[in-house]
TrEMBL record:
It comes from the Eukaryota. GO terms for biological process: methylation. This is Caffeoyl-CoA O-methyltransferase. PROSITE patterns: SAM_OMT_I. GO terms for molecular function: O-methyltransferase activity; S-adenosylmethionine-dependent methyltransferase activity. Belongs to the class I-like SAM-binding methyltransferase superfamily. Cation-dependent O-methyltransferase family. Keywords: Methyltransferase, S-adenosyl-L-methionine, Transferase. Pfam families: Methyltransf_3 (PF01596). Its cofactor is a divalent metal cation. It comes from Rubroshorea leprosula. InterPro entries: Cation-dep_OMT (IPR050362), SAM-dependent_MTases_sf (IPR029063), SAM_O-MeTrfase (IPR002935).
């Protein structure tokens, strides 16, 4: 009654195009997308970084929410899935805001940090990628995102399994569950951030850089 009727047309078209992909469930859902868009607008974000793009639903969300002069660095190891969403990004006339880089993200983050001008220059970061590297990403993004900026991590409930007894967790989810639980433990102890774990979708850890 609220999320789907308010979904922008370009995002609905991209969601429909993604629905036939075998890993369609990787995409951010409309309710989470609308939360991201609101947060971007609340902090007046102009420069963002996204790790893990898939077909680009969250990327297009960000591109639509930031000003016309805004910029997004989007990093993913798979350009093929990004190409699925590219026509919808182009149709929405926001491709000029996006710099897509096909690469392991840590390499690019390290490259960005080699230039001191990049430190504290980003307003917003969204991470939906390899869970075993979440803390590594966090350490580097905390240098790239400005104080008062937001860092958001997806899937931090890992299907709810983070609060299940281990023997109840399907074998295929156990290794990444441990990675997610360790990341949750580490950011919970990070005194540089304010933290909210939203139970929306599969868990969004919303971090505000306070100092």
């Amino acid at each position: 009654t609220s999320a789907y009727p308010r979904e922008p047309v370009p995002l609905k078209e991209l969601r429909d195009a993604t629905a036939t992909h075998p890993r369609y469930f990787f995409a951010v859902d409309p309710d989470a997308s609308q939360l991201l868009a609101m947060l971007l607008k609340l902090i007046n974000a102009k420069k963002a970084i996204e790790i893990g793009v898939f077909t680009g639903y969250s990327l297009l969300t960000t591109a639509l929410a930031i000003p016309n002069s805004g910029k997004i660095i989007a990093i993913d190891v798979n350009r093929e899935t990004y190409e699925i969403g590219l026509p919808f990004i182009q149709k929405a006339d926001v491709e000029h805001k996006i710099k897509f880089i096909q690469s392991p993200a840590l390499l690019i983050l390290n490259e960005l940090l080699q230039d001191e001008e990049n430190e504290g220059s980003f307003d917003f970061a969204f991470v939906d990628a390899d869970k075993n590297n979440y803390w590594n990403y966090h350490e580097k993004l905390m240098k790239l995102v400005r104080p008062g900026g937001l860092l958001i991590y997806a899937n931090t409930l890992w299907g709810g399994t983070v609060c299940w007894p281990e023997e109840a967790v399907p074998e295929g989810k156990r290794e990444r569950r441990k990675d997610v639980m360790e990341f949750n433990r580490l950011i919970s102890a990070d005194h540089h951030i304010e933290l909210v774990l939203a139970s929306i979708v599969d868990g969004l850890s919303i971090c505000r850089w306070i100092f």
